[in-house]
Amino acid sequence: LTSRDEDLSIQQSFRGFSITTPLSIDNNQRELTPRMIGTYDSSFGEMIVTLGVDVIDTQYNSQITSIKDDQNLKAVYAQVIYPFMQQWSVTAGARYSEVNNDVTATYKNGEVKEDVTVGELGLSWQPGDTMKIFARVDQNFRFAKVDELMALCDRLEAARLAG
């Protein structure tokens, strides 16, 4: 369980006029990321099973351009490392993740929703105590973080205001 609060106060000028009241950007994030790892005996060694859940809630509020975002990310994942022969093991895993951004801005309000399922498959050979050869094929993804998504919205709003 983690919590992060970032509060940024900005004093700026705009086209030669000083803004006397500082503007702020607030970014608050809460994460719950439990993981369970179990080991089980099998015919050719120890099997390792990993199960996990990620729940991340982020609120972003920019007074600079009046943009707000409430981002909720949820994910579940599993991975199994299974020794199937002497010196050989296979790794298989999958992750499902979804994100929902509820954006409020002066020029547009709405939701941005995405979801994705990815997997991995690997093969490992350990001919001795000091050497291991591993090959893996996996998929990867990355959702935009709130501050990255909002930085784009900030740039679009600034361009809109500039004309």
Give the helix/strand class.
Answer: mainly beta
Question: What string gives the helices and strands in order?
Answer: EEEEEEEEEEH
Give the rounded overall mean pLDDT: 85
**Which stretches are low in confidence, meaning pLDDT under 50 for 5 or more residues running?**
none
Largest sheet: 8 strands, antiparallel
Provide a quick synopsis of the model.
With 163 residues, this protein is mostly beta strands. It has one helix at 146-162, and strands spanning 2-10, 13-14, 17-18, 23-32, 35-42, 45-62, 67-85, 88-104, 109-128, 131-138.
Overview of this protein structure:
The protein has about 160 residues and is mainly beta. The chain has one helix at about 145-160; strands at about 1-10, 15, 15-20, 25-30, 35-40, 45-60, 65-85, 90-105, 110-130, 130-140. Strands 1, 4, 5, 6, 7, 8, 9 and 10 form an eight-stranded antiparallel sheet that branches. The protein has a two-stranded antiparallel sheet with strand order 2-3. The protein is elongated, with a radius of gyration of 23 Å. It starts with a strand and ends with a helix.
